[in-house]
Write a structure and sequence with these properties.
Distance between the termini: 44 Å
Helix content: 55-70%
Largest sheet: 2 strands, antiparallel
Shape: elongated
Number of strands: 2
Number of helices: 4
Order of helices and strands: EHHHHE
Length: 169
């Protein structure tokens, strides 16, 4: 048996890149059009670009969308870099609401809704989006890692036999 390492790009990463792309687009557009459906987090105004939107949602959404596109590329290095970019964006979605008060004077809280809608807002805007992006990016990167392939290779029979000569002294 022979072992060889396969370093080829895997088309199995395409669906994961596509899901990351969709989640990145969700992160970009949900703060802008969410208020149409009473799903606004910081404001009830549609297409209102606030600094919090840019820092917490739109920029990581762009990073996730670009990372998802790169994960679908048929190059191993581009896919790996796209996976890392998407993973970073997913982690940013997860930790940014907690870290936001450290660099700004404001806090992150949704506008007045019922407790159920508030929970869905946190999941839909930050935690669910970030967790899914991070999961899909990690899985997609795992598909791009080198794999060991075991192949059976026929071994040719020996062509000549060697005799052992013993000399006595």
């Amino acid at each position: 048996m022979a072992l060889r390492r396969s370093r080829a790009w895997s088309p199995k990463a395409i669906p994961f890149g596509f899901f990351i792309l969709l989640l990145g687009l969700w992160g970009i557009f949900v703060p802008l059009v969410g208020p149409y459906f009473n799903f606004g987090f910081f404001t009830d105004e549609t297409w209102n670009f606030m600094g919090r939107h840019w820092e917490l949602l739109i920029l990581p959404g762009i990073a996730a969308a670009v990372g998802g596109l790169m994960l679908m590329l048929p190059t191993r290095g581009g896919g790996w870099l796209g996976g890392m970019l998407a993973t970073s964006a997913g982690i940013w979605f997860l930790v940014a609401p907690s870290l936001y008060p450290l660099w700004s004077s404001g806090t992150v809280h949704p506008i007045r809704h019922t407790e159920t809608i508030t929970a869905l807002l946190w999941i839909g805007y930050f935690y669910g989006t970030g967790a899914l992006i991070t999961y899909f990016a990690g899985y997609g990167q795992g598909l791009l890692s080198p794999r060991t392939v075991v192949e059976e290779v026929p071994v040719a029979p020996p062509t000549e036999t060697r005799e052992r000569v013993v000399t006595q002294t």
